[in-house]
Fold this sequence. Notes:
Layout: H1 8-26, H2 28-34, H3 43-69, H4 74-93, H5 100-132, H6 139-145
Helix pairs in contact: 1-2, 1-3, 3-4, 4-5
Amino acid sequence: MTDGKRDWLAVGAGAIRLSSGVSFLVAPKAASTLWGSDPDDNPTASLLLRSMGYRDALVGALLLRAGLRGDDASGWFLASGGADLADLVGGIANHDRLPRRAQTVGNAGAVVGVVVGVGGALLSRRRASAGASDPAPDLRSAAAVGPPSAPRPRRRRGR
């Protein structure tokens, strides 16, 4: 439901996830280095980095869109947090095989992402519920629709 008020947490989280996803698509080795991994020419690693890039770009773009439109973004926050939870589980499962920087930066980033995802979903749901129960009409919507079409009664002259 578009209410004309932007959800700035969704805009920020969506922009960060979108830019992260695009970085994994455009420059997977550089993005991998930023997150603490040792980039190599392993085709499987490149495939997985690009898959993460598509996922993050898609979820980020839709979270950003919901935030800009003022829509309920709780589902996209949960998708974002779920993606980070999957990354965290993978990071924990491979903890001993990861470089030290990837252990800290990657897993800490995933934890922050899960917290933002769950917290953002709760805040977005609360915001959507508060907007739905607001009895005040949205004047911008009313102005776009126009006045009621019922004719006005005419006054007679002379009587």
